Amino acid sequence: MFLFSFCYYKVIHDRKSDIEIEGKKDVTIDDKTLEVRKRRRLAFLDLLIEVQKQDPSFTDEGIQEEVDTFMFEGHDTVAASLTMALYLIGRHPKVQTKIQEELERVFGDDRKRFVTSDDLQELQYLSCVMKESQRLLTPVPFVGRDLAEDTRIGGIDVPKGTNIFISLIMLHRDPKQFPEPEKFDPDRFLPANSEARHNFAYLPFSAGHRNCIGQKFAVMEQKVVLATVLRKFKITSLQKLDELKLASELVLRPVDGVQVKFTRRP
Q1: Most buried among 14, 36, 69, 225, by the most CB within 10 A?
Q2: What is the mean pLDDT of residues 77-101?
Q3: DSSP 8-state class, residue 20
């Protein structure tokens, strides 16, 4: 851990030196909203350094913690989501067939072409599968919040400043919003079936001002990986759902891994 911290601080220090050499950047930051007003995009680390110039209380340690959040939380959650999605697809051959039919409509018989942004927009059923996977096996099973004001929850008065935790994995099993909640059914997320659903019934990336800042990138990343894998391989899961040993930590993960067989498609 010490080595990682040393490397991060060195990267931050070196980048600050580079910025000084490059000259003053055309960036101003609104003190109230911290909205960046600029004529060109900044790299994430550069943006944090600019914020520090405006607010010296934002230390190098604070910069490191922000980078840690993006690097490690983004890595673990996406890996968990892909693992569970591949497992569930491998458990449901009819779903897998529908995905591959959609992939063939978009890509034809070309299994080597890179996935583009336009392709991702066309993969609507794959999006439904991903959403249903994240509903049933939610990558981040709970979120915590500090109450900013006195609140009444379920008939109980909860005072300001209380730490509360919301179980997303239980929220996603509300039978009023998701009939037969233990069933894997991607059709739940077809527009005709989901438009009347409560806006906060499904929150794999949380919600509000502190929702996942990287959710759009995470969704795009997962779709690219799944589309690439499923164009080339048939997936067969070798375990039943109740045979998986799942640990509900910061990220939902299988304790002993997941047994999945990959067979190259003809």
Answers
A1: 225
A2: 95
A3: H
Distance of alpha carbon 160 from alpha carbon 149, whole angstroms: 4
Q: Taking the CA of residue 239 as centre, how many other CA atoms within 13 Å lie in the half-sphere pointing to its CB?
A: 15
Q: Using one digit for the tens of pLDDT, what is the confidence trace for 122-144?
A: 999 999 999 999 999 999 999 88
Which of 105-119, 122-136, 206-220 has the lowest average pLDDT? 206-220
State the Cα torsion 159-162-168-171 to the nearest 10°: -20
Q: In angstroms, what CA-CA distances link 201 with 21, 112, 135, 173?
A: 50, 38, 10, 9
Q: Does the pLDDT of residue 37 top 50, yes or no?
A: no
| Length in residues, the chain | 266
Distance CA 240, CA 233 (A): 20
Amino acid at 172: H
pTM, 2 dp: 0.77
Q: 7 a known binding residue?
A: no
Give the pLDDT band of residue 23 (cuts 50, 70, 90). Answer: low
Closest among 192, 167, 166, 189 to 178, alpha carbons compared: 189
Single out the residue of 180, 200, 202 nearest to residue 189, CA to CA.
Answer: 202
Q: What is the mean pLDDT of the chain?
A: 86
CA angle 137–216–145, rounded 5-degree value = 60
